[in-house]
Task: structure prediction
Amino acid sequence: MFYTWLILILPLLGFAGLSWFGDRIPKKLVGPVGCATVGGSFFFTLIALIHLLSMEPGERVGNVQTLYHWIQSGNFTLDLAILIDPLSVFMLLVITGVGFLIHVYSIGYMEKDPNIDTFFAYLNLFIFSMSVLVLAADFFFLIVGWAFVGLASYLLIGFWTEKTSAVFAARKAFVMNVIGDVGMVIAAFMIFENFGSITYMDVFAQAPEKFLANDDTMLLITLFLLVGAFAKSAQIPLHTWLPDAMEGPTPVSALIHAATMVTAGVYLVARCHVLYDLAPYTMMLVAAVGVITALFAGSMGMVQYDIKRVIAYSTMSQLGYMFLAVGIGVYSVGMFHLMTHAFFKALLFLGAGSVIHSMNDEQDIRKMGGLKESMPITYYTFLIGTLALCGFPLTAGYFSKEAIIMSSWYAEGSNPVFWALAIAGAGMTGFYAFRVFFYSFFGTCRTAEAHPHESPTIMTYPLLILAFFAIFAGFGAPLAHSFLAPVFGGVVPEHHTNGFLEIIAVGVALSGIIVAAIFYAEGGEAEGKSDGLKELLAPIHDVLFRKYYIDELYDVLIVQPVKKTGEFIWKTGEQKGIDFVVDEVGAQVKEMSRLLSIWQSGKVRIYALNMIAGTVFVLIFVVFL
Amino acid sequence: MLALIIAIPLIAAIALFRIPSENKELVRKIALGSSGLVFLLAFGVFLGFDSANSAMQFVHECSWVSVLNIQFKLGVDGVSVLMVLLTALLACASIFYYLNGKDVSVTFLALMLVLEAGILGVFMALDTVLFYVFWEVMLIPAYFLIGFWGEGDRVYATTKFVIYTLVGSLLMLVAIIGVTIAHYEATHILTFDIQTLVHTEIPKSDQIWMFICFFMAFAIKVPIFPFHSWLPHAYGAAPIPVLVLLTGAMSKTGAYGFIRFCLPLFPDAAEMMGFVIAGMAATGMIYGAWIAIAQKDIKSLVAYSSVSHLGFIVLGIFALNDQGLDGSVLQMFNHGIIAAALFFIVDILEKKLGSRDLSQMRGLKGKMPILYGIFMLITMAALGLPGLNGFVGEFLILAGVWTSSSMSGLAAIYVLMGGLTITFAAIYMLFFFQGAMQEKNEELPTDLTDIDKKQIYMLLPACVLIVFIGLFPKPFVDTISPTTKHILTIEKTVKTSKGHSDEHH
Result:
């Protein structure tokens, strides 16, 4: 299986080639080159998939491919190696598959950008980094990939470097992710300390024998890993960077901030399920944070007007569902939602990109409307994506989300509270998803000078393909579960059927859609219809619209104090403190030598006198004492 | 070979004083040729170095002051060979950079070469007195270089620098004599040979004061918190080529001293006080990083970031285990490269814009795309991005601290402080990089040009090393680790005759 290295090498070559020669080859060639490398990676991923399927289920796990001996220091040794198993291949399918479609879409979307070569170079870098993250066979290269996707995300959020807001958003994302990285590094130290190795194989083999459930060490390790997972996957309280990350070009939002990178946290928990199984308390936390984020993000999404931000909040919310799933121990259910989410969320983002593109970079849904006629393909695919997001029966989202909600009722680690919150979140999803949909596509266009038009085929084809999967991927659930089973100890999650519960879940989601339809079906807020209600809900609306004031809170509690303290340490501690003391010591020594120098009069007579006086003094001292 | 490495710059310095300064071409050839030759020799030593062997290699030995048995003895082990390579590389780069400037002073070049020789001597000396001599030799050219060619309050800065470091080195001289006397009392052999002295068993009470004397000299030189207050002034005043040697190479002599003297000579004292020193170092790394966040002057931003990184290095040394020590030595090399490259960039920006104020610069990317790419890589290395060299060092250091037995309870706190430092590093480096290069700026001078070929050639080796060490740290770590392992396990047995002690290796 040595060819699997090509999955990594191709996008890396693409990155290197495009950043060195990108400005020397014709602009038209840049996009196809960038796509070709990712397409190649996808091809080899498919081969790896077939290869795995051809093996016995038991042999599919633990295929480590070692390239060379990377470092040796004391008892710390590490190979540069990758791990091919169903989980990593599953992730790769999403990364390279959806990634390839988004690359193709970008050819059209970024056509007019003068720095398109840099853009594709960065996209390739991202695919490479994300592949490193999922292919790593140990915690060290996991962290390397982890930080590299952070870098790629930083570069792409701040791709339009002349836009001040993009520069700040990029910085925020980077710093937040560094906090996560530090958490991961500390977890890696603890793992090394306790297991003497940081490769997955060694650690996961030893863990169940070495530790009892809820051992302090296990709890700490899993919690530190979670810092990284929550930072990357924008879960409370490390979520504030994700909405701002929408400053980047839309394909970036689709690829990194919806389909792949932000799901790394879910992947991490699934990958380390052996450790998490030994830490039920942490699992409880994972599920709780997940379901709370799902609600919290959904509520913020209900009132935003920026089309991309709404979808960003919905991403946070769906990630919450995935964390809920892995938190209650149904790992492959979470992983399957990760995959369907990648399809429909990438579809929604690309659809939004298509809308933004045709509206001359307008992102405010209040200024859109009536796009149904002018952009039919975008309209229908966006509708499919929205339905899948809401979990409308028989779409992909229905199968994956329904399984999570049902598991949250039945699974061992769960309780009815999680279930109720998950249901409430589903209701919100229906509302905000269709609010955006009606705003954008129904009614009449609210910007007079805009001339919306359908996007070129290079952008609509990826939409169609994603739409296909957004509808039909759900039927692959049993296949996916049995494929992933060997990684999760051979467990195929139970399929729970309970007509009553299902009807409640679907009913709540549908009622969300219906409420959205009542208010917004005419495209935008109906005049007068909701005035009374609006006044009633105004305070809540404000809190939601200002994102619970969390950005402001962080600014007051963390950002400003850090800056002020830096200033204070420098001006007071450094200049008036340490530096002053040192100078003062010097000054005092100088002063003292000035006093002593009185004795140096240069007169030999006085020197002689002093010598005699001194000698007498010493003699007296010696003789009499 | 090693004697040649020291002799060449000294001879070249004398030659530069003698020739007429109008002959610019000859000055150029001598300065560049000699520093280039030293680098080639250092590289040759690095290639010829047998990394499996933890003993001193390329040993050059001859009697110097035979009455006191002081020897002119040079040699390199896995730690010093990297430092020699680093010093030679940085000296070569900074002389090259200086020669591309407008006014070239012969005296400046000669002093630079003397400084280089001094630093190289410190890294190679195997005799305590010889070490002390080189230690002081470094100071004289540095004094004049900052005093004559510096900027701002240069006389205050250089006086402070010299007096402060002198206080430390005089204490060290006392301890050097003390160690020899202790050895003499045990064996009745008078020697200043480091390899012999390390096997001396010094009583614990004596260890402590000697350790403190050595420690003061090195702590001031590095410098570690709270002995760093000469640094902002000296770094602020020093001209960039000098600064590159100062931060890249000279600051490493302090850290090197800890490894060469403090650990093997006084193991008990190091064990006892290690966690206190680690506390200072850890405080210093946060302290420097925090102040760096508040800086608007990019030169002092990089200066304080150096305080932070040097604290990191010392922290690793006093973890007193393989990973910590390996990481520190590797990080010494890394920091030398990264800080030097950052200071070069500071100077390039200052020359192009006429200001070092971060609030004055913005949006340089459009006019300087090549610098943008290089600067980005160096920024990422400085903030410790995994996959680049800075991370390998920091990871090993923190792994060492985490598992360190001498710090026990405090280890976790130090690691958390390290984590905070890394987060702060991301903040100040992005302030610097994004602030200078990104956003939109309509007011840039129209004649602003990208860096020229020579400047690219200067920064390119740094970029290559940053990526290379990040991806293939093994050759470097393999060079370092047998030596560090050896230092950590030196047997404390007093050999009765000097001849035997060398067989130990």
User: Anything to note?
Assistant: The two ends of chain A are 92 Å apart (CA to CA). The longest helix of chain A spans residues 550-596.
